[in-house]
Design goal:
The protein is 25% helix and 40% strand. It is α+β, with helices and mostly antiparallel strands.
Length: 363
């Protein structure tokens, strides 16, 4: 029993001596280094790659909410070519697609009946006595031209020659393709020359409009190319046609308009559209987005100061696109930065030092 007590006292004394041992020589007042040294195998397994930072052109893309509108330059009003009674409307439904040359309406017009008779008379005179007197041919041509101006096609005039008599009812054809937006008259109605019958819209191309704030308007000029994406479809390139300053909701905005092709007819007015505008390019320090670590404590990168030795460095970022980010402060051209595997370095740093690198820089 005495031997056990003696052994315990000796152990306690040895431990106390260890705790009070004084280390001779100079004592460092510098904080321990926060650099992280990795082995060759760690670098290889983590696929850590570095790159020397330098200046390059950075172009930033901004997405602006827009909308599709009818191209007003393609809108048309079909009006009555002469005064008379509207005998028939071939299309009465709004939204109906009309092809060029398709019958639109049938009109009884005493004026057109008179012009037809004048043409037939002038042609008869040209055929019988026009050989000796060419002026009758010019009278015939003038009478034909009048019928053309009133909307009769060449085939209708030639048919009139074949029949040899005036037609009381004339069918008028669509001058261009389009979609009926509204029907402005009814069958049996007496109409004056120029009275609107149909309002037509053409959707083979549409307008894309977007409201730009003052700082955004500086990025766009008439004639610039922008990308437009509608309903998740493929991005389409179009040219800016028009910029107009307007005052909306107590704010000064610029209405940007571009024309987008719609030959397939899948796009409709009123659909929302994303307009992708590129901010002017600038020569600046640039890093890949994945090289920058962002956390609540701050933003930093890892600079390779020696082979396989990485130092956390606080940086200030600026412009950013899908792949690159601008570095405004914290790095100098020529420094080598980890551009791949940065998050693995970040995790290893926390595992080794027990804190976020940004917390160490703050302290």
């Amino acid at each position: 029993m005495k031997n056990y007590l003696l052994t315990g006292l000796l152990l306690l004394l040895f431990s106390a001596c260890e705790r009070h041992t004084t280390i001779t020589g100079p004592v460092s007042t510098q904080p321990p280094t926060m650099d992280l040294m990795l082995t060759e195998s760690q670098v290889r397994l983590a696929n850590i790659q570095t790159r020397e930072i330098g200046t390059q052109i950075l172009q930033q893309a901004h997405v602006i909410n827009g909308r599709l509108k009818e191209d007003a330059t393609l809108a048309a009003v079909i009006s009555s070519r002469a005064a008379g009674r509207l005998e028939r409307l071939y299309h009465k439904e709004v939204g109906r697609n009309v092809r060029k040359g398709e019958p639109l309406y049938e009109l009884y017009s005493e004026a057109l009946l008179t012009y037809q008779q004048e043409f037939l008379w002038a042609r008869e005179q040209a055929v019988t006595i026009g050989v000796d007197k060419p002026r009758y041919e010019s009278i015939e041509l003038a009478a034909r031209k009048k019928l053309e101006l009133y909307g009769l096609s060449n085939s209708q005039i030639n048919q009139l020659v074949v029949l040899g008599k005036a037609q009381p009812r004339i069918t008028f054809l669509a001058p261009s393709a389009g979609i009926i937006k509204s029907v402005e008259a009814t069958e049996g109605q007496y109409v004056a020359e120029g009275s609107p019958l149909y309002a037509m819209e053409n959707l083979t191309s549409l307008w894309v409009e977007a409201d730009l704030y003052a700082n955004e308007a500086e990025w766009v000029r008439e004639g610039d190319k922008v990308l437009v994406q509608v309903d998740g479809q493929q991005q389409l390139e179009c040219r800016v046609d028009f910029l107009s300053p307007e005052f909306k909701s107590n704010s000064q905005v610029w209405v940007m308009r571009a024309t987008i092709s719609n030959s397939s007819g899948q796009l409709k007015p009123g659909m929302p559209a994303d307009v992708i505008v590129n901010q002017p390019a600038k020569q600046t320090l640039v890093l890949p987005v994945q090289a920058v670590i962002r956390s609540a404590a701050g933003t930093h990168v890892y600079v390779e100061t020696e082979p396989h030795v990485f130092q956390p460095r606080t940086v200030v970022t600026g412009r950013e696109n899908f792949s690159d980010v601008q570095i405004l402060n914290g790095l100098a051209a020529g420094e080598r930065v980890a551009v791949s595997g940065a998050y693995l370095i970040y995790s290893e740093f926390i595992l080794k030092h027990g804190m976020n690198p940004m917390e160490h820089n703050h302290h």
